UniProtKB/TrEMBL annotation:
Family, similarity comment: Belongs to the CPA3 antiporters (TC 2.A.63) subunit E family.
Subcellular location: Cell membrane
A GO MF term: monoatomic cation transmembrane transporter activity
Gene Ontology annotations for the cellular component aspect, listed alphabetically: plasma membrane
Source organism phylogeny: Bacteria, Pseudomonadati, Myxococcota, Myxococcia, Myxococcales
Main location (coarse class): membrane
Protein name per the record: Na+/H+ antiporter subunit E
Domain of life: Bacteria
Natural source organism: Corallococcus exercitus
Keywords associated with the record: Cell membrane, Membrane, Transmembrane, Transmembrane helix
InterPro entries attached to this UniProt entry: Cation_antiport_E
Membrane topology: Multi-pass membrane protein
Amino acid sequence: MSLRTLVHMLALALLYALMVGSFHPVDLALGAVLALGVMRLFPLAGLPPVLGAREHWRRTLHLPRFGWALAVLVTRSCFQVLRVIFGRGDLADRAGVVDVPMGERTARGVQVSSWAMSLAPGTVLLELDWERRVMRMHALDASDPDRLLRQLDDFYQRYQRAVFP
């Protein structure tokens, strides 16, 4: 096991311990086992992209903008879900499945897009189809799939692409 893998495993184990609120050795051991499982299931998450120093700094400078845009997306999505829950009855009948093209996204870009989709209330990733290069998602409001696709592509082009292409 490399030092990098060990550091990632320990960081994830500590994160698990913080989430469960216990630093008991059994919880830390369970966190370490779960961390290794996560690292095996998602191997790209632990690999740093090969970047030059200039590209690394450019992406780092765009990261706060991406974080802010993600926070705004999640907040807006929360209000949209509240409208569906407490609004008119016909809003609840608009749910559906939408295929989102991966487009020019790298594997890491697809991971981040999928994570952002699932993080925002009202949408969740169902499946990644690498052969067709589509991310299949469920949306509470799929009444206008083209509008939803435009919103997702706009978020990618304006905020995510500069950090996680």
